[in-house]
Amino acid sequence: MLSLDSALKERSPTEEDGAVVKLDFDVGSHFIKSVRPRASSAPLDPDVLKRTSSVDKDETEKAMSKEKPFSKSSGNQSRREKVLSKPDEPPLVGRTMEDYLDMEADRESYRLEKFGKLLAGPNTDLEALGQLGWAGIPAAVRATTWQLLLGYLPSNIDRREETLKRKRTEYRNYIDQYYHNRNDTQFHALFKQIHIDIPRMNPSVSLFQQKIVQEAFERILFTWGMRHPASGYVQGINDLVTPFFLVFLRDYMSVNDNLENCDLSKLPHDKLAMLEADCFWCVSKLLDGIQDNYTFALPGIQRQIQLLEDLVKRVDGILSYRVTVYVATPPVLCSGALDAHLKRHSVEYMQFSFRWVNNLLTREFPLHCVIRLWDTYLAEVSDFSNFHMYVCAAILFTFSKNIQSCDDFQSLMLFLQNLPTSSWTDDDMHLLLAEGYRLKYMFADAPGHLHAKK
């Protein structure tokens, strides 16, 4: 990298057309440039140059305030304050916990009211619903909202009850048609793999260890595999059912029930059958958009992992460094530290990110965080799998220091496959999604980026 002292030696202090520029490249912020003319006759004083080459705080804040919808916070706000403070609100400094809880309750009530108005209309505006749901969906309306965004429910409110009745009956007919074949020699391997995978789902969540729940998952996955012979059942699809099951279950339980530990043997059989059918159709809708992730040779997963690697190289190689140079001096960009560190220790992206893509991060975060993540995924107006790559890149940059502190292959793989997210909250997911959005906002339209190489 060209040092400031070298730049001073290479450039005459008496040049009249000079100007000092700070090129600020930083993950999570846009390119900021500040140019100031300097006196043409006075010699350059190092202290003056240092002051001149810095971007004023006011100018920086003004420039960054243009970033929407996520502006980079300034000052000494905490992580929670950065997430919860509106742009036009003062920081939460000095407020009591009671104030914070009241503010959260008011905000949740306001958002629930907005969702209620959208959902109660004769024809739900799906674009407006997606825009509102991108920032999170209240639990009380999450099931209906997910079903609408996936296209399982029609936007016309008068057709929803009839559609649910018809689709649930259709699923029961599929069970009668396919499930008795599970022990046939031709399909025994398929059912055996499903039977092995299901107990591995969220072992810390007692709900998914109950026999009645596991039997429902077996029917869902076996039926889906039978109806999709091009791919069949693939390990990891079982994890994609769990968020739907937990979200839809809330509509049949008390508000105060701890869903992850509730006893489903007390749930009436007809309600469990409706819950199971809704999960089948919604996971089918989800998989329709990423079908090539599970076909022969997994072309979808391979393509996405290559795109993730390309993105990390670009971001890490361009935005991780701050370079202060003269206008006439081209910036000298360093090679990406994170990507180079992985390569130095022979870590391939396929080795750690395959599960991230295959399971849509269901094993990397607590279940409540996965549900919050999927609020945004399902609200994405375009292909959510594209945005998923930006979120995966945001994960790598979030833990960049931890990753670079690992000094061998084994410790790197151990960390990347066991991310320290067990105590994460929805606030942490807000920040991660904001970073994913920033990366998408800056790079999605960049020439040649996130396009398959010919």
Give the low-pLDDT segments: 1-90, 319-335, 449-454
DSSP strand content: under 5%
- Total DSSP helices: 20
Major sheet description: 3 strands, antiparallel
**Which strand order do you get reading across the main beta sheet?**
2-1-3
The structure class reads mainly alpha
- Please provide the ordered H/E string of secondary-structure elements: HEEHHHHHHHHHHHHEHHHHHHH
Indicate the multimeric state: single chain
Spatial gap, N to C terminus: 33 Å
Q: What is the approximate shape?
A: globular
Provide the helix percentage. Answer: 40-55%
pLDDT averaged residue by residue: 78
What would you report as the Rg, rounded to the nearest angstrom?
26 Å
Q: What is the β-strand count? A: 3
Task: Explain what the structure shows.
- Strands 2-1-3 form a 3-stranded antiparallel beta sheet, with helices on one face.
- It contains 20 helices and 3 strands.
- The radius of gyration is 26 Å and the shape is globular.
- Helices cover 55% and strands 4% of the residues.
- It is mainly alpha-helical and 454 residues long.
- Residues 1-90, 319-335 and 449-454 have low confidence and may be disordered.
- A hairpin with a 7-residue loop joins β1 (19-24) and β2 (32-37).
- It starts with a helix and ends in an 11-residue tail after the last helix.
- The protein has helices spanning 4-10, 46-52, 57-64, 79-84, 97-120, 126-133, 139-149, 160-178, 188-197, 211-227, 237-249, 269-288, 299-318, 337-344, 349-358, 367-379, 384-398, 400-405, 409-416, 426-443, and strands spanning 19-24, 32-37, 322-326.
